[in-house]
């Protein structure tokens, strides 16, 4: 697998307003450093390190083992205007070369980025479809890479043609377990299994189902917002409200759509 022509990646938001939002919400709600405009930066560096270790990319790992301040300074070189928000795609190859693809970020309410987040009830939920074909888990689903064929195929099957579409598709493993979204981590409201606890809580699929170890997912788990629980396609309810998250958009509302006809 490590001989294939791909790179490891992590995608995140750069926003100069983020430190002010973090300061207003309290230091216990966000990982250090608190004053960086890079959303969840240490988690992104960790994710890249873990991928380099998995693929035995020693040169990439040496680059990624620099301290966080030096890593941030490397990213700074690619920011064209530090007064504006940007979508960053960090790309590291097996030789340790790192480039950053930078594009203007879509407008987002930064209150949606910090746990406990604030999502307006007036927000229009994203449509959340279920893939019509299974995806086999592998290192290319556990770790985020430029080998995105499985994810693009899932989006194409459900007619999601643009990154700007307010829609996502849930990838499903051969056992019928939800793995993750094609560009997001999903969260569902469920009651705890095999207990007398009646209060529903947020759950997200475990990594054992084959999905990616996302940075916003790690953040949600670390803050106690959710817990892991296997969820199958049979557990999904048409029209139910869910949550989605990623490193560029924070946490957003979703609504499950089970009656979407594939193209």
TrEMBL record:
The keyword Zinc-finger does not apply. Keywords: Aminotransferase, Transferase. It comes from the Eukaryota. One of its GO terms (molecular function) is transaminase activity. The keyword Nucleotide-binding does not apply. InterPro entries: Aminotrans_IV, Aminotransferase-like, BCAT-like_C, BCAT-like_N. SUPFAM superfamilies: D-aminoacid aminotransferase-like PLP-dependent enzymes. This is Aminotransferase.
């Amino acid at each position: 697998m490590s001989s294939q022509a791909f790179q490891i990646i992590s995608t995140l938001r750069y926003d100069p307003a983020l430190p002010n939002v973090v300061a207003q919400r309290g230091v216990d709600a966000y990982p250090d450093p608190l004053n960086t405009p890079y959303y969840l930066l240490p988690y992104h560096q960790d994710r890249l390190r873990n991928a380099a270790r998995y693929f035995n990319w020693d040169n990439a790992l040496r680059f990624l083992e620099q301290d966080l301040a030096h890593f941030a300074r490397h990213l700074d070189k690619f920011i064209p205007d530090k007064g504006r928000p940007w979508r960053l795609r960090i790309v590291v190859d097996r030789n340790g070369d790192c480039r950053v693809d930078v594009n203007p970020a879509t407008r987002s309410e930064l209150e949606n980025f910090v746990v406990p987040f604030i999502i307006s009830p007036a927000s229009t939920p994203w449509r959340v479809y279920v893939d019509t074909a299974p995806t086999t888990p592998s290192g290319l689903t556990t770790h985020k890479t430029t080998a995105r064929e499985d994810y693009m195929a899932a989006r194409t099957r459900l007619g999601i043609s643009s990154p700007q579409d307010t829609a996502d598709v849930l990838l499903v493993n051969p056992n019928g377990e939800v793995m993750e979204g094609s560009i997001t981590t999903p969260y569902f409201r469920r009651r705890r299994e095999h207990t007398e606890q009646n209060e529903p809580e947020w759950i997200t699929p475990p990594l054992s189902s084959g999905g990616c170890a996302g940075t916003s997912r790690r953040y949600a788990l670390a803050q106690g917002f959710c817990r892991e629980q296997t969820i199958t396609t049979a557990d999904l309810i048409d029209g139910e409200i869910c949550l989605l998250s990623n490193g560029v958009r924070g946490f957003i509302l979703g609504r499950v759509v089970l009656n979407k006809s594939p193209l």
